[in-house]
Amino acid sequence: MAKSTKKTLLLAKIQTAAGTDASPTAAANAILLRNVTATPLSAEYVERALIRPYMGNSGQIPTTKYAQIEGEVELAGSGAAGTAPAWGPLLRACGFAETVTASTDVTYAPISGNFELLTLHYYLDGLFHKIVDARGTVSFDITAKGIPFMRFRFMGAYSPITDQSNPTGADYSAFMKPLGVNKTNTPTWSLDSYTGCLQALTFDVANQIEWRSYISCEGAEITNRQPTGNLVLQLPSITDLNWPSLVLTAAEKALSITHGTTAGNIVTVNLPKTQLTNPSYSDDNNLAMLNLDLNINPGQGNDEIEIVLT
User: CA distances (Å), 185 to each of 97, 127, 174, 178, in order?
Assistant: First the structure.
């Protein structure tokens, strides 16, 4: 019987110990996502390289196995200031620390060690995939006339895929309805002191995820991060924004954007030390646009990205 990709369910929960299934449930840990891409079994192989008196393949032996999954989650708050969002566990498993100040805000900032682990239960119309010890990376897209979103990619330990009915009672009520990106819903942004017409901000945390496989030891490791991004804005005058000077002097400037206007659903992204590179022009319905690549650099360390929910 054919399987339907519409009947997809993902559950996610932070683990308390390595190698231990956190046992997420549909009622408490369902993830509202879109554009899912699953690689249920990834493997690395070694050639046998046999020498025989005839030509042909010698065959390969699998030496490692793991699972991967990607998907997008809409960027919105939790509905209450000082309450962590439902997507918080995903960001934590991408190398971010979560700091909750009750009734005030929730802040996410990158870390460089002691990365948390995530259990993922992925159901595809009666096929059950269990992924434990997962870690990942994430990118952000805030583009005018669109829905802001995060795209996550996780890697974790493979478990045998089994036939198992999708659990019922998935509760997505903790995911707030997102707001479209526009002048009203995205009230402020700035690059240093400049606040002209912005079309898009995208950036990638760009964690380097490696599947470590040794004797008596294997798992997904975050071995580095090199965040980059891109700005697309209406081409300004040099008086308003001297971008050639910023590019040529390798100046590091603060970049910030706030999306949302109602307490509990306001998300602010701060990139305190952003270096502009690779400028180019583009066209948007006969309007000249400026494209700038971004290197998102740390200051004192673990401070290159700050995501604040208020």
Answer: 27, 40, 20, 10
Q: Is the pLDDT of residue 22 over 90?
A: yes
- Enclosing domain of residue 29: 8-309
Residue 2 lies in a domain: no
pLDDT tens figures, 73-110: 999 999 999 999 999 999 999 999 999 999 999 999 99
pTM of the shown model: 0.96
pLDDT of residue 308: 98
Alpha helices in the chain (DSSP H): 26-29, 88-92, 243-248
159 in helix, strand or coil?
coil
16 C-beta neighbours (distance < 10 Å), count: 9
Grouping H, G, I as helix, E, B as strand and the rest as coil, residue 5 is coil
Is 3 within a domain?
no
Q: Provide the domain count of the chain.
A: 1
Structural domain contains residue 264 = yes
